[in-house]
Amino acid sequence: MSQQGNWKIRDGFKIEKVVSDLFLPVNIAFVPNPKDEKGTPLFYVTELYGKIRVVTNEFKAFVFAENLLNYQPDFKIPGTGESGVMGIVVNDNGDVYASMLYKDNKYFKNKVVRFTTRDGLKADESETIIDDILSINAAHQVQALTIHQGKLYVNVGDGMIDPEVAQDDNDLRGKILRMNLDGSIPQDNPDPKSYVFAKGLRNPFGAAWRKSDRNLYISDNGPAVDDRIAKILPGENYGWPNSMRTNSLFVWWYTEAPAAIDFAGDQFGDDFKDHLFVALFGYAYEEGPAAKGKKIVEMVIDRNDNVVYLNEFLRYQGKGPASVCGLAFGPDGLYFTDLHGEVGFKKDKKEGGNVWRITKTSRRRKWQRSPITRRI
């Protein structure tokens, strides 16, 4: 490991800040086939309190959509300030989908909105494709969005108050939902009359599709113990609230708050291809290096669904509250958000978050195998 600024990173890699002055940047979604021309979109970033930013090839950030929340955030984190605009994904045709919280006359609820755009730089129209999913003004809400083979997959938390809903087939909380891109129910769902693709989840933050086996993988935050990584299969039950270990591939007994996840393609070469990279957020807003989270780990899952390798890839070593939240592989490397950056979460200093890029600098890979000590 080598020290680069406030980050300690695996030898043979470098880290650089590519976008700054963001307000609570959460998740990143790359354009499926970005163009090479200047001024064209490269990726989108959700900002928790009501914005979506678009970042161009030369790393210039613009407001794609704003004023997306119909309630006033209270800045209480951890707690009731954790909700807002969360998941994001871009379709091949350029449509942008985002998940977020909203409030009706009485309750907080989850929804997914589709934005259409002519140039990718500004949303022209928006349409809610699914809503009315009961939630609370805190965590355990609607989160990651992914698109696979023309279907939209939506991570929905259990809403925290009544975890038993994760087992209720008539309730969409604590589930992975599958729908057509217009929000209708696909006829080939496990139940052709239901959005539910899988159930028994608590707080599934991250999601990524693995090309080698064409399956969806998610990160799911446990209570005091048992954060996990799971492979999502149609119609499967993942156990919550009875257990966080049911049908899990890997469990952190010492909870580290896994956030976004993604599988490496060719960005880091053959030695890293198909490895899973996991953002571990840790304690919310703890200053300086922390025992929990504030890092990215690299995980190798074999063909038999065994985690055979787990090692630290990046760790925050600065004095601020920065931590890793969003994470996604782009054409040239691994990108991540640090949510609130060095300045922390302050009403008078709203734009402290950043997007960072990790690229490979050498062909030689320097690491030692770590024993898997927290297996199920």
What does this structure look like?
- With 376 residues, this protein is an all-beta fold.
- 0% of the residues lie in helices and 43% in strands.
- The protein has no helices and 26 strands.
- The chain has a 6-stranded antiparallel β-sheet, with no helix packed on it.
- A hairpin with a 2-residue loop joins β1 (2-4) and β2.
- The model has no long low-confidence stretch (mean pLDDT 93).
CATH homologous superfamily assignment: TolB, C-terminal domain
Q: Please give the largest β-sheet.
A: 6 strands, antiparallel
Pattern of helices and strands:
EEEEEEEEEEEEEEEEEEEEEEEEEE
Strand content: 35-45%
Mean pLDDT across every amino acid position: 93
State the CATH class. Answer: Mainly Beta
* Overall body shape: globular
Per CATH, what is the topology?
Answer: Neuraminidase
CATH architecture: 6 Propeller
Kindly give the count of domains. 1
- Spatial order of the strands forming the largest sheet: 1-2-23-22-21-20
First-last Cα distance? 28 Å
Low-confidence stretches: none
Q: Tell me the number of helical segments per DSSP (H or I, 4 or more residues long).
A: 0
Q: Bin the helical content.
A: under 10%
Count of strand segments: 26
The multimeric state of the shown protein is single chain
Structural class: mainly beta
Q: State Rg.
A: 19 Å
